[in-house]
Fold this protein.
Amino acid sequence: LRAPARILLVAPGARVLPQAALGESRPVNYLVVDKSLAGAPGLPVPRERTYSCVWQDLWHDAIRAAVAATAPAGIANIWLPGGDSRLRRIAERLAVAGYEPAAERPAGERAIVVAASHDAARWTPQLRAGDVVIVIDRGAQARVAVDAIRRAGAHALTPPIASVIAARIHELVSLSSQVAPLLQAPQDAAWVDPLVAPGGEQAVVDLELASILDEGTQSRAELTPKVAAARARRLMGGRP
């Protein structure tokens, strides 16, 4: 993609899709729609592409993005209070990113906090004005925690999940664009499967292993990239 793509996320909470949202002056390049909205009125008929992403990975990436956006330069200590099991995985992700997550509040006037709302009564009394709290869940319970955070003079944030999904979709679309020539390339008849008797000039190729068993009369230097492209087409088509 030569220019930044405009991606519109349509979630189940949207009752209708306003035509203005699609943008007449600046058209939307990609429309990401929740499967539960299939057939809903107002949606354009697209060329569908299916991508699979693990929600937990997206959510962890969003938490890490929120930490990166709020942590001052040179401060790597992050406070993860409470005993929520989800915090352990989040701590591992943050540690890989170069932060130092701790179960106790780090020294300093300001803290970056990643916390679960159901444990709010345990850690909100330790908050100070200027702290930034990234709440890892939503709903009514989270709103109660957010109120307590604000009363302490701290700032409450939610992970930017929509931005992370948009970025991931952009990466996948870009990758698909790069792989598209391989997917559209015609199958080469220069070889046959190991179980088929070869012709006089045909090579014998095992595409599952991407290996050339017999070159026939062809040059290996020319045959190798063709086999690699055919192997890529099989993988992208969902075959082993």
Remarks:
- The first strand starts at residue 7 and ends at 10.
